[in-house]
Amino acid sequence: MDNLELGKTIAKFRKNKNYTIKQLSEITNVTSSMLSQIERGLSSPSLNTLRMIADALEVPIFSLFTEFVQTKDLITRANSRKKIIFPSSNNWEYSLLSPDLSGSIEMVLMKLPPESQSAEKPMRHIGEEVAYVLAGEVVLFIGDDVETLYHGDSVKIPPGIEHKWENRSDNEATVIFAITPPTF
C-alpha cells in the first residue's frame, strides 16, 4: 500500500469517527499539519505515529493497511439484484444475493418454475457449493445419484461433480446457494 492509499484510509476512518484533523491531532499529539500531510500521501508516518492514530480511531493498526469498506457497499437491496433469466428454460432464474463477485464466496438464489430444470445435461464447475431448499421440492442429479430434496434440506456439492436441478412439481421451487469461488 502506498502513502496515498494509507492516507485515504486514515482519512476515511477519521471521518467515520466524525473527527476533524484538529480533533485527531489533539488526541494523538501529532500536529495537524503532519496529519494533513499523511492523509494526502505527502508524508510517510512512523510505526509509532500509526499506532497513535489507530488507537485514537479505535481500530486495529492492521486495518489501516486494508481497504476501507463502507457498510452501504455490503448491502444488496432486493430490487437491485443482478439476475440471469433463462427464457428457454421456462424463465428459470438466478439472482446474485452478494453485492458483487469480489471475495471468495457468493450467494445465489435460484428459482425453478414448475416442470423445469436448470440444464439439459448435468454441469460441473471448479468450485464447491452448499445449497438449501428454501421452498418447494427439487430433484438433484448429482454424480450417478438422483435425490429429491424438500423444503429445509441442504446439500454440499464438491468441486467437479456433475449436477443439475429439476422441479417436477406444480409449484415454484427456490434454492439458495453459497458458492466458492464466485462464478455468477
**If strands are numbered along the chain, what order do they take across the biggest sheet?**
1-2-3-10-5-8
Number of helices: 4
Class from helix and strand fractions: alpha+beta
Strand content: 25-35%
- From the alpha carbons, calculate the radius of gyration and give it in angstroms: 24 Å
InterPro entries: Cro/C1-type_HTH (IPR001387), Cupin_2 (IPR013096), Lambda_DNA-bd_dom_sf (IPR010982), RmlC-like_jellyroll (IPR014710), RmlC_Cupin_sf (IPR011051), TransReg_Diox_bact_type (IPR050807)
Domain HTH cro/C1-type: 10-64
Keywords: DNA-binding
Pfam families: Cupin_2, HTH_3
Question: Can you put this structure into words, describing what you see?
Answer:
This is HTH-type transcriptional regulator PuuR. This protein has 184 residues and is an alpha+beta fold. Helices cover 22% and strands 30% of the residues. The protein folds into two domains: 3-68, Orthogonal Bundle (434 Repressor (Amino-terminal Domain)), CATH 1.10.260.40; 74-180, Sandwich (Jelly Rolls), CATH 2.60.120. It has a six-stranded antiparallel β-sheet with strand order 1-2-3-10-5-8, with no helix packed on it. Strand 1 (82-86) and strand 2 form a beta hairpin.
